[in-house]
Design brief:
The protein has about 210 residues and is α/β, with parallel strands linked by helices. The chain contains 8 helices and 9 strands. The chain has a 4-stranded mixed sheet with strand order 2-3-5-4, covered by helices on one side. The chain has a 3-stranded antiparallel sheet with strand order 6-1-9.
Length: about 210
């Protein structure tokens, strides 16, 4: 990836650059799935966390669980969940906007005092499109998109995943894997708002492949 391509992954639609990573271990919980799918989702989160070098934990001392993944059939189901409105202010108008847009997924991040990621909420409305996606593919895609705060346009034109030639298996694109590892380099900050950060990411990706 060129520095310009890297920069585009963290340049938001308003033109601002912002890359943020988790500042604490990830403690996930998954709602609305059977045990088999639960194992797939948690396995994907663990695999991407290991790639990044980001620790996982059973619980977060402040929040209990800090990555919450919800599977459901209709957006209105979120309004029936106890305490979710307390964790997500303005939940009702958000649900109304998502219904109007006919959205089938949405992610919300929360940040600590240093602006590193401290929590993520992943909402997946299982419409016909998402229901047709294999659980492994869906889980890996969401794990990748929550390991960093990407641009809101980062994967509009190209998925972070790729199909293995000659197989039905889906894997993380190698360059995206390298980018995730670079973003979690210990010498880099948890949060960067200067596009020059993309040059530092590029240098670390080059070192990893040399």
């Amino acid at each position: 990836m060129t520095p310009e391509q890297i920069e585009a992954h963290f340049t938001r639609s308003d033109g601002s650059y912002l890359c943020a990573r988790w500042g604490r271990p990830i403690a996930p919980v998954v709602f609305g799935v059977d045990d088999a799918t639960l194992a797939v989702v948690k396995g994907a989160i663990e695999a991407v966390s290991q790639l990044a070098g980001c620790d996982m934990a059973e619980t977060d001392p402040e929040l209990g669980a800090n990555m919450m993944v919800f599977f459901f059939r209709a957006w209105d189901e979120l309004l029936e969940l106890p305490d979710l409105g307390r964790m997500i202010p303005d939940l009702e108008p958000l649900v109304a906007r998502l219904k109007e847009a006919d959205a089938n997924q949405y992610r919300i991040f929360r940040f600590d005092e240093g602006d590193a990621i401290k929590a993520a909420f992943v909402f997946l409305r299982m419409d016909a499109h998402l229901a047709a996606v294999p659980a492994e593919t869906l889980a890996l895609s969401q794990a990748v998109q929550t390991i960093l705060l990407w641009s809101d346009t980062a994967f509009q034109d190209r998925s972070p995943l790729a199909i293995v030639p000659g197989q039905e298996a889906v894997v993380l694109r190698p360059e995206i894997g390298l980018l995730i590892r670079a973003a979690y380099d210990a010498v880099l900050p948890n949060v960067a708002q200067d596009a020059a950060h993309a040059l530092r990411l590029s240098a670390r990706m080059s070192q990893a492949t040399s």
